[in-house]
Amino acid sequence: MTGTRFGPAGRLRRLIGTRSRFAVAGTALVVGSLSLASAQISPAHQTPDVPGGYRSWAALYAFQARLDKEAARVQSVPGQNASDGLAGVVADPDAHALTVYWHGARPVALRAVLAKARVPVTVRTAPYTAARLQSAADRVVARVRRQPASMVTSVAKLPDGTGLKVGISGTRADAGRVRRELGDPAVPLTIVPGTQAQQVMAGSRWNDLTAGGSLMVAPVCTLAFAIRRAGQAQMLTAHHCFGVGDTNYRYDTNDSGQAGNRFGVLDSPTFVRNGATVDAAAIRNLSKNAFQPYVWRGTNGSASGDGQFKAKVVGAATPQIGNYVCTSGSRSGEICNIKVVERVDTYLASFGTDGKKTLYGPGWTGQQKTSGKSSAGRGDSGGPVYLDNQSSPGSGPPSGGVTAVGVISAGSVSKPCQGVQNRFCFRNVTFVGIDDALHALDNAAIITTNGDKTFPAGTRPGTVARPTYPVHEELVDAGGLSIDVSGNNIVATTDLNAPGDEWVFTDAGDGWTNIRSSLGTGALADADDAGNLIPDSYKWKFTDLGDGWTQIVNFDGRCVSTKTLGHQAAACDASDPAQRFQVVEVESDDHDPATPVPGYTPGSKL
C-alpha cells in the first residue's frame, strides 16, 4: 500500500508501507455481585521495560500526548461524509508516528492540518469511510439481535477502513454459517473464531469515596471520576453496577469489610445507542463530603490504606488506538502497560454465573503487554482508565496528574489476578471512552483541577428508559392521533379521551419497558410476516428525538407507527410524524401496583 508521510516540519515524502491490523483475542465483560472476602494484597502492577525505545515512560507519554492531539485535529476536519472522510487513526507511540486512514478526496482542511503536524504522519488510502463502516456495523448488529442463538460476540470497525471484524464464540468451521446469517453488509467481514463473550467486573479506597478508584458496595464495584451533571457534582461509574434486583443506593466499606455508610444513589437512566447499552451511570452524592477531581492510585483497597495515594485529574481526552493507558480498580489497584488495540462498536457481556448476556457499546479494548499479567478483574467495574504522566507508571505520587480516558466495563482472556485474589481477572479490558460516557449522561462535564471539561455533543441519538414504574400514559403522534385499544384491535384515534388510549408502562428489566393496555386486553408486541408474535417483541425502549418527541423502539430496531397498527412495527424513520410520539402521563403511581409482563398477554398486537 502506498502512503504519504508528513514530517514535523510539514515535509512531504513518499514511502511504501504494509497495512497492519490489530487482532484481539476476545471481547466481553461480566459484572457480578461479589462479597468482600479477605483481601490478599499483592503489588498493584509491575513496572515493565519502557517500549518503543523511549528513555522513560515520561518520554513515551509526552510523545503519545502529541500524537493524540494531532489525531483529534484530523478527526475534527470538517466536511466529512460517507463518501469522503476518515476511516480511522492509529496513535501508536511504538511506531513513533500517527497513521491516518482516509477514503476519497483529501480536502484542503485535511491538508492544512497535516502540513502543521508536529509529529510524523502517514496517510494511507482506505477502501471505506468510518461512516460507511458504521452503517454496515449497524446492519450486522440488527441481524444479530434477530437471532438469539447467534455466535456473534463483538463487532468492530477495522481502523484501516478495510471492513468489519466480527468475533464469534464458535470455531473456524462455524464462520461460513455466521456469514450466511449476517447477510451481505456491503463491506468485507473478517470473522475471528474463539472470541468469547466478555465478563463484567462488577470489589483507604474503602472509606474515602470522594475520589475515583474507590470501592463501593453492593455489589462490589469501583468509582471512576467526578463529573458535573444537571448542575451537581456527581460520580461516574459503570451502568452494569446497578443490576436488576439491586437497590439504587450505594455504600462505602467499614474496617471489617462490610457495607458502611450510604454515600450515593443512582441518578441516571439507561442509555441505549444503536441497540447497545452505553455502560455508564451517574451517582448523586448523599454524603457530606464533596466529590473531587482526584483518583486513587497505588495498591488495591484495604482498611489500612498502605500503598495508596490520590492523584489529580488534570484533563480528559478521547482514547486512540495505540495509546498506553492505566486502570485503577478498587480490587486490583493500579495496573499500567495496557495498550489500546481496538475500537469496539458492540460487545456482549455476561453477568455473574447465570450466562445471561447483554449487548453493550461502544467501547475500547486494551490489552496488557506484560506477559502473564491482567488488566483488571471482578470488582474493578466502573473504575477509572487514564493516561499516566509520570516517569515510571505506578512508582509513586506523580507531579503531572492523570488524564481521564474511560470507565472500566468488561474483560476477557483469563489471567492471574493482581491485588485481591480468588476472583476472575483478564488480560483484555474493555472500557467506555470518557467522551461516550459523558454524552450518554446528558452531555455531562468531567471535573478536573483545571476546570470542567466537556466534549462536543455531535449527533448521538439514544434511548432513555423510564426510571419510575408503573406509570400510566397516552401515546399521541405528531399528527394528533392517539393509540387506542378497541376490543382486541389496536387503532389510531383522534379521540384523546377514548377509554382504551391509556397504557401502563412497567419495568421489563435491563432497561426495557412493557407497554400494556390499562383495559387488561393485551400488550404492545410485534409480529412476523405470517402474523406470529415475535419472542421478546413486547419489550420496548424510548429514543429521545428532542423537543419532547420520542420514538418507541423494539429489540429488533423497529418502531411503533400509527400507520401500521394491527400489523407490524415499521422500519424506524425519525422524520415520520406517525413515529414521533408525545408520551403524556395521565396519572401517577397512585394506581394499584402493576407487575412487569413476563410474556405477551394474548390480545392486541401491532
UniProtKB/TrEMBL annotation:
Region (Disordered): 359-400, 587-606
Polar residues bias locations: 365-374
Segments traversing the membrane: none
Taxonomy, superkingdom: Bacteria
InterPro entries: Peptidase_S1_PA, Peptidase_S1_PA_chymotrypsin, Ricin_B-like_lectins, TRYPSIN_SER
Entry-linked Gene3D superfamilies: Trypsin-like serine proteases
Protein name (database record): Uncharacterized protein
Lineage: Bacteria, Bacillati, Actinomycetota, Actinomycetes, Streptosporangiales
